[in-house]
């Protein structure tokens, strides 16, 4: 297998590893040609809709390979070389061990020369034709650390990529220590998802001038995501912030006992005869109205339960980073925004600010936004992250395991801190669905489930954007790394013959 990778999966001219497909119309064991000859875009990466393999040139060298040097595949190959060399030495196959270490040295030298980008502090994928870095980063870009400091990247390189990328809140948001950040939102905080509906037929979502809707609760997101799991009925625009899905005691929030949360409810402000619904959020006693026939009609509250709970002022441990949630309006659309991008778009598009609704935590991926769960499958500042669909932002336990294996070999304060942080976040990820929580569907929150993948901001297994399988063996790796870190899983001692 190692020899096959070394001879069949190295892109020219630098000999670094990449993914590929078969040049022959042979059939896989499951009887399908597709499994033997996957599309060139994904090759044998297994990243079915992964952004890092999206739109890549393929087979320009005639080798039936993706025309990029892959940090992830290269890092895993290095780990494979070193592991097999150790096994070969155990059975006195010294010539094979020497060859495997030679291969590792050849590939590692090329990797450090071509994939390490000191200006960004990251290992990057690099197109081979034309030769240029690929800007997107994923957990696979930490796989070069699987080689360890003795045979792979140095302690200094590992510390730099951990500090600048792995623990960066705009990238992968791994905690720099086992301690939760003091400004972390409560567990019941959920993203405020900005949706824009499609009213212009076959032109797709985010149609010009179509109305917006802001969702916190699952039931609201399910309503706007309805149609299929890639949001073709309505489109996600952005995250505006993080708000609470239920009331949380003041002591848990770290605010004074005299400070009460503000519940916000959904209101329907659709004018009579309008061809699209105008939804907004407002407090319980909100008296909003819309113009109609020379007069006005009141906005109607759509549910007895609150859509979100927000802080009434800048209070609590995260007070410096809280953002103000505001209602803006122009005829036909109430636009509820909190992010800087949302407010700038509202002002530029002719909306008028109506009122403040309170304060929320900053949106995921902001420089001031910590994350309860770390290592999403694509960086938080990537435009595909918000979709939270499979490899587009969900958290996968095998990635947690591989990155843990890599960084735990290093001894710098950055490496030790990030290892402890990743273990703490991964434990929280696993326990969310295992322990269960209140939910409004028959899948998420039922408890005793170990999922295929998880939502990066909520740790939900089955969610409105991606239906993950509920009993998946590799999901338990998010807890297994904690057992390894605590010394409950040590290598079996080698017996001398």
Quick summary:
With 497 residues, the protein is α+β, with helices and mostly antiparallel strands. It has 12 helices and 21 strands.
- Distance between the first and last residues' Cα: 28 Å
How much strand? 15-25%
Given as residue ranges, the uncertain stretches (5+ residues, pLDDT < 50) are 27-31, 33-38, 228-232
Helix segment count? Answer: 12
The major sheet is characterized as: 4 strands, antiparallel
List keywords for this structure.
497 residues, alpha+beta, 3-stranded antiparallel sheet, 12 helices, 21 strands, 18% strand
Structure in words:
The chain has about 500 residues and is an alpha+beta fold. Helix content is about 25%, strand content about 20%. The protein is built from twelve helices and 21 strands. Strands 11, 12, 15 and 16 form a four-stranded antiparallel beta sheet that branches. It has a three-stranded antiparallel beta sheet with strand order 3-6-7. Strand 17 and strand 18 form a beta hairpin. Helix 3 packs antiparallel against helix 4. It is elongated and about 90 Å long. About 45% of the residues are buried. About 5% of the residues have low confidence.
List the helices and strands and how they pair.
Blueprint: H1 2-8, E1 10-11, E2 16-17, H2 33-36, E3 68-69, H3 71-90, H4 94-114, E4 116-117, E5 122-123, E6 126-128, E7 131-133, H5 148-151, H6 155-166, E8 189-197, E9 212-215, H7 218-225, E10 234-244, H8 250-253, E11 262-268, E12 279-282, E13 289-292, E14 295-298, E15 300-301, E16 308-310, E17 323-330, E18 333-337, H9 340-348, E19 352-360, H10 397-407, H11 413-435, E20 462-463, E21 466-467, H12 477-485
Antiparallel strand pairs: 1-2, 3-6, 4-5, 6-7, 8-9, 8-10, 11-12, 11-15, 11-16, 13-14, 17-18, 17-19, 20-21
């Amino acid at each position: 297998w190692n020899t096959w990778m070394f001879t069949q999966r190295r892109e020219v001219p630098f000999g670094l590893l990449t993914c590929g497909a078969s040049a022959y119309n042979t059939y896989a064991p499951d009887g399908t040609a597709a499994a033997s000859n996957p599309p060139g875009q994904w090759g044998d990466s297994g990243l079915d809709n992964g952004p890092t393999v999206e739109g890549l040139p393929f087979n320009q060298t005639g080798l039936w390979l993706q025309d990029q040097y892959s940090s992830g595949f290269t890092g895993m190959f290095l780990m494979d070389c070193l592991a097999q060399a150790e096994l070969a030495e155990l059975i006195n196959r010294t010539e094979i061990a020497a060859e495997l270490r030679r291969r590792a040295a050849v590939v590692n030298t090329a990797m450090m020369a071509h994939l390490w980008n000191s200006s960004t502090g990251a290992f990057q994928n690099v197109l081979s034709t034309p030769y240029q870095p690929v800007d997107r980063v994923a957990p696979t870009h930490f796989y070069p650390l699987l080689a360890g400091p003795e045979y792979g990247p140095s302690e200094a390189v590992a510390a730099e990529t951990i500090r600048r990328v792995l623990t960066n809140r705009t990238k992968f948001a791994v905690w720099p220590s086992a301690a939760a950040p003091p400004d972390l939102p409560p567990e019941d905080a959920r993203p405020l998802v900005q949706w824009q509906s499609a009213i212009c037929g076959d032109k797709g979502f985010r149609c010009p001038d179509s109305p917006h809707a802001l969702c916190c609760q699952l039931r609201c997101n399910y309503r706007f995501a309805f149609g299929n799991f890639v949001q073709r009925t309505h489109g996600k625009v952005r995250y505006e912030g993080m708000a609470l899905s239920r009331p949380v005691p003041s002591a848990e929030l770290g605010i004074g006992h005299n400070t009460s949360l503000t519940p916000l409810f959904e209101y329907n402000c659709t004018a009579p005869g309008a061809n699209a619904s105008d939804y907004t959020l407002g407090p319980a006693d909100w008296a909003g109205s819309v113009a109609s026939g020379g007069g006005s009609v009141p906005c109607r509250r759509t549910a007895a339960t609150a859509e979100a709970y927000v802080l009434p002022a800048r209070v609590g441990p995260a007070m410096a980073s809280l953002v103000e949630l505001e209602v803006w309006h122009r005829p036909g659309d109430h636009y509820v925004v909190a992010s800087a991008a949302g407010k700038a778009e509202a002002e530029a598009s002719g909306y008028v600010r109506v009122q403040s609704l309170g304060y929320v935590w900053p949106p995921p991926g902001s420089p001031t936004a910590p994350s309860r769960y770390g290592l999403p499958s694509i960086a938080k500042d990537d435009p595909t992250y918000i979709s939270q669909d499979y490899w587009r932002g969900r958290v996968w336990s095998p990635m947690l395991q591989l990155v843990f294996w890599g960084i735990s070999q290093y001894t710098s304060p950055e490496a030790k801190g990030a290892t402890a942080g990743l273990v703490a976040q991964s434990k929280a990820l696993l326990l969310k669905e295992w322990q269960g929580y209140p939910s409004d569907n028959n899948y998420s929150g039922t408890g005793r489930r170990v999922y295929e993948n998880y939502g990066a901001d909520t740790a939900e297994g089955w969610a409105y954007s991606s239906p993950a399988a509920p009993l998946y063996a590799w999901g338990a790796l998010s807890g297994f790394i904690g057992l390894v870190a605590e010394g409950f899983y040590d290598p079996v001692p080698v017996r001398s013959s």
